[in-house]
Amino acid sequence: MGREAVVKAFADIKAALAVLNAEVDGYGSEPFSAADPLAGLADGNLDILAGAKEAEAGLAGLKARAAVKYADTVQALAPDMPVQAQEMAVAAEIGSVLAIGLRAASAFLAASHAMDTTLPLTLSALQAGSISWQHALAMADEAATLDPAGAAALEAHFLDPETPRPATAAAIGDIPAHRLRHKARTWRERHHAESIEKRHAKAAADRRVEYRPDQDGMAWLSACLPADQAMAGWNRLNALARAAQGPDEPRTLTQIRADTFAEAILTSGTSPNFNAGNSDAAGAETAAGPSSSVRAQVLVTVPVFALMGLTDEPAMLDGFGPIAPSMARKLVADGADSFHRVLVDPRDGAPLEIGRTSYRVTKAMRNWLRMRDGKCPFPGCNNPSLDNEADHLLAWHHGGTTGISNLGQPCPKHHKLRHSTGWTPTPATKNEPPGWISPSGRRYKSEHQDWEPPHWPGAPRPATGDPPDFFYLGRSPGEDGIERFLHARAN
């Protein structure tokens, strides 16, 4: 049957979707409930949601298996192609078919391969619809640095039906995927074959700050830091924001937090007299200003033997998760009094056309390319123009001209892909970037800039203010009780 069977199967799925869409609107052949049609419709739509969840998971499992099988088949068809070039070509094809970028396609393929080869319980649960793709991805991500035995143990702990669980505990597929990720990460930190101290030292070398543009004149600025610094900064921002709230403060807690963060990085602190050296591990206080008495409060749960340096068991940083015991020891021993330790009993313990007169691409041409394309023109790629490389679509030595209509500006990765695999760009114009033809012969159109005429100025609209979305009401009696308990234990 082959291709005919595939076409028929997907036609059946489309037909089923048409039926389900009619049922969503209550236009099926029969009502969900003759006695109470409205209540029946509501209940029926929940059934549709539950069924759709399982169907989506099953299709995700199908996609994963199809991607892996495609990669294996390509390898068998072209065994002499360099491995790296082949991997790029495969990921580029899969990414183009799924309309995702090369990086996302590579990650999808890697996760799919992991599930197909080393995480059988995860793939089986995904195909059965008992967990979602996001759940499966969490398992694959956490198992990525484990040896085969560790990955198997991680899977068994969460997905083996033979693993004992409390009768009242929710099934893994019934909890949000981010919660499973947290659980799996905690399990991984505790059972990883390599010491968390060594892993943390390697990870800390990759600390960085990243910038990402967003809509409406906004952008994201984020940092990857050691957990204690990140958590202390977050909690300190919260504490400062709460301290600034009051009856005459119109900003929400979220707005105050953002303003405080911007002020800190743009003015070297939260007050004009900020002294960069006057801070402790908790993010500490400024040398002067009204916020000098504000401190973040963070809990560090430390197994008593890890605190004593007798074991490498991870400690738990409240709001984050497992951290290296040396970090915990530093927090509780080096004067970071914004951190309260919680000991655990060891017995039960948590882009101008110039023809062919010059090969060189001028600065004006590069600027035109940037305006034409905006980014790398490969399907799904969002690499910005400033990082990209001008490339002759028809090679100079084959008669290609150095003009806008014969130039592209692929990012370094897709430039390499073009010259090391069978991916080829299609002709471009002065106003349209090139498309691409994959090794399989499929044609993929490029994304174009969404140019629009500017708006003419009109009468200014009156300013409107949104009401605050957070109100700080103080600590609860329970929080006060915990505070008294922790201070009593610390003393």
Please provide a brief summary of the model.
With 491 residues, the protein is α+β, with helices and mostly antiparallel strands. 47% of the residues lie in helices and 8% in strands. Among the domains are: 1-30; 42-160 and 174-193, no CATH class; 300-350 and 478-490, no CATH class; 363-444, no CATH class.
Largest sheet, described in full?
4 strands, mixed
Number of beta-strand segments: 11
Calculate Rg over CA atoms.
29 Å
Helical fraction = 40-55%
Globular, elongated, flat, extended or rod-shaped: what is the shape? globular
Q: Unreliable runs, pLDDT <50, ≥5 residues?
A: 270-297, 350-357, 452-457, 459-465, 467-479
Range of strand content: 5-15%
- With strands numbered from the N-terminus, the spatial order across the biggest sheet is 5-4-3-6
Describe this structure in words.
With 491 residues, this protein is of the alpha+beta class. Among the domains are: 1-30; 42-160 and 174-193, no CATH class; 300-350 and 478-490, no CATH class; 363-444, no CATH class. The chain is built from 16 helices and eleven strands. It has a four-stranded mixed β-sheet with strand order 5-4-3-6. A three-stranded antiparallel β-sheet has the order 9-10-11, with no helix packed on it. A two-stranded antiparallel sheet has the order 1-2. The longest helix is centred in the N-terminal third of the chain and has 41 residues, at 37-77.
